[in-house]
Amino acid sequence: MSDAHKVAAPDPDDFLEVDGSLSPEERDIRDTVREFSARELAPNVADWFDAGTIPDPRGLAKSFGDLGVFGMHLDGYGCAGASAVSYGLACRELEAVDSGLRSFVSVQGSLAMTAIHKFGSEEQKNTWLPRMAAGEVIGCFGLTEPDSGSDPGSMRTRARRDGADWVLDGTKMWITNGSVADVAVVWAATEEGVRGFLVPTDTPGFTANVIHKKLSLRASVTSELVLDGVRLPDSALLPGSNGLGSPLSCLTEARYGIVWGAAGAARACYRAALDYAGTREQFGRAISGFQLTQSKLADMLIDVNHAALTALQIGRLKDAGRCHHTHVSFGKLSCVAAAQRVASEARSIHGANGITLEYPVLRHMLNLETVATYEGTAEIHALSLGQAVTGVSAFR
């Protein structure tokens, strides 16, 4: 075979050429978010993680708004109307830096904005969505409670009618952006079933308390929301919300971003391990030349590319209108597990250096513990897939 017909060696960073199938527009979005992340986020994220917070969340929100990633998959109201794959690529590049930063974008766009876009009135959409897309207003999404996580139907937050108003009482827990939000989308049980409400955070009776001493997702603001006799006008109700399916559909949107985000975290850990193995010398040579290290890198390479392929295929199904919520469960379960395996192996390749914030691997490893838990634990998604293939529900 002549040299002209030799197949080029695979790219270690895209071994199966997953990104080779992207459209020019998708590549442009990928590159724009990747460059922004490298310039604005990566140099700071270790310090933010160390501090356990984002020092300037409003400034970051404005930067994300200028970048155009808030609600970028939604149509109209100042949103870009980008494809599902394009939004997924943005999530991948953000989480390649840190899960907390992707969570900031997911909660704003896939949870709070999506709830308003799907279930809000035209007045609510016009009031909130353009400012949220621009990063001028921060939103949060209140579904999980201290005693209601995997079983949101057991929520204790209640909304009762009082004349022309609604009065809300209850507590929400583990709410990203809660204490910096301007508006909270709060889900509450009513006599009519579960309904969604838009709660301006300066409403009397509303309190957001920052959760401290986290060991994961530290470059993020996480809060408890307390609603004590919060009185809202009837116009605060999301009129299209109807039952538990409404918030769960928003969670499916956010989980879709996690599928891509986990692929980004896996890629970042693999790349860090590959670089480190090539420069770390023991016994007179780089550890990348040792069989056990190469075995680890090979396993990581497979997980990284499997996750990337899974994310892209689910994205293509979504853009074609053929994505079932169990497809997203498949992606969340498989991609997060793959990322956890990669992060663990990457930490081992880094040795003692792997436990410091000088390298990203343990930070990703810790973050992925949260990613594996929130918006559906591994167990819940496994049961979702079990039900999909057997036709039998094991939930109740």
Automatic annotation (TrEMBL):
**Which reaction equation describes what this protein catalyses?**
glutaryl-CoA + oxidized [electron-transfer flavoprotein] + 2 H(+) = (2E)-butenoyl-CoA + reduced [electron-transfer flavoprotein] + CO2
Which Pfam families did the record assign?
Acyl-CoA_dh_1 (PF00441), Acyl-CoA_dh_M (PF02770), Acyl-CoA_dh_N (PF02771)
- Which top-level group of life is the source organism from? Bacteria
Question: What keywords is this UniProt entry annotated with?
Answer: FAD, Flavoprotein, Oxidoreductase, Transit peptide
Residue span, Acyl-CoA oxidase/dehydrogenase middle domain:
140-230
Q: Report what the protein is called.
A: glutaryl-CoA dehydrogenase (ETF)
Q: What is its EC number?
A: 1.3.8.6
The family classification in the record reads: Belongs to the acyl-CoA dehydrogenase family.
Q: Which organism does this record belong to? A: Lipingzhangella halophila
- Pathway entry: Amino-acid metabolism; tryptophan metabolism; Amino-acid metabolism; lysine degradation
Q: Which residues form the Acyl-CoA dehydrogenase/oxidase N-terminal domain?
A: 23-136
Keyword Membrane applies:
no
* Region of interest: Disordered: 1-22
